[in-house]
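Reviewer 2 asked us to include a model.

Predict the structure of this chain.
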Amino acid sequence: MKVFSTVTVQTLTLATGETISYLLEHRPRRTVGLKITADGLVVHAPKRIFEFQLNQILQEKSHWILNKLSQREANHVEKIQWIDGEHLLYLGNDIQLSISPNHRNKKPVFDENKLKITALQPQGLSPQNIPAKAGYSCVKPNIHTSFSRMIIQWYKQQAKLDFSRRLEILAAKIGVETPPLTLSNAQSRWGSCNSRGEVRLSWRLLQAPPHIINYVICHELAHLKQMNHSAKFYAVLESLFPNYKAAEKELKTLSPQLHRM
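Predicted model (C-alpha cells):
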C-alpha cells in the first residue's frame, strides 16, 4: 500500500491520455467521495486504501469528473478587480464602482447607481496619474486592499440593515418572533438556522435580486417551524414563498456571479 500524507496533490491519467490534477484528502470514512470546488477536483478517501483501488474508482467516475469540470469552466467568472469603473451587483442591479483619490478616507456613498469610494492617495501617486481601468495594474497592491476592505465593509453594513428588515417582516408573516441575525462569510452556504433559533445569512446575498434574498430568508425561517428538510418543512416554506423551487434554481445559476466578491 502506498502511504499518502493527509492532504496531497495527485494526478490522474485517463484512458484518453488526458491528465487531471486533484487534491486527495484522507479521512476516517469507508467510501470515496468526490466534489468539484473552485480549485478543481477534490477526492475524500478512506485513510487506508490501495492506490490501484482509488485509481480504478476515479477511472470509473471519469465521465462524471470531466462533465463537472467542464461545467465549472463554463460557469467560471473572473474575480472583481477593485478598480475605478468596475461593475458590481447590488440588489440584482448593475452598479459601477467610482474611485477618487484623496488625502484621507471617506465613507462610501451610493448615488445614481454608483458606489463612490474616496480613499487615501497612495504615496507617490498624484491625482493626475491615477491610471484608468485598463492600466490600473501598475498601482501598488495596498491600494486595492484598502478599496476592497472599504467596499466589502459597506456591503456588510447594508446587508445587516436590509436583511434585518426583511427578517422582521417575514417572521411576522409566519407568526414567529424575529430571530437574532448574524452575517456570515461562508462560501458554500447562503444561510443557516441553528437549534437556538439564530439565523446566519451570507452578506454576499445583498448582490442578489430582492426575491432571491427573500427566498433564502424564508428557507431559514421555515426551520424555526421544522428543523429538518422533511415534507412538513417544505410545506411551511411554500406557505411563505410559493415559488421557492424556481428561486432555488435561479440562485444556483446566479451563484458564480455572487462569488466574484
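Residues 82 and 144 are 6 Å apart (CA to CA). Residues 1-5, 124-143 have pLDDT under 50 and may be disordered. We have added this to the supplementary material.
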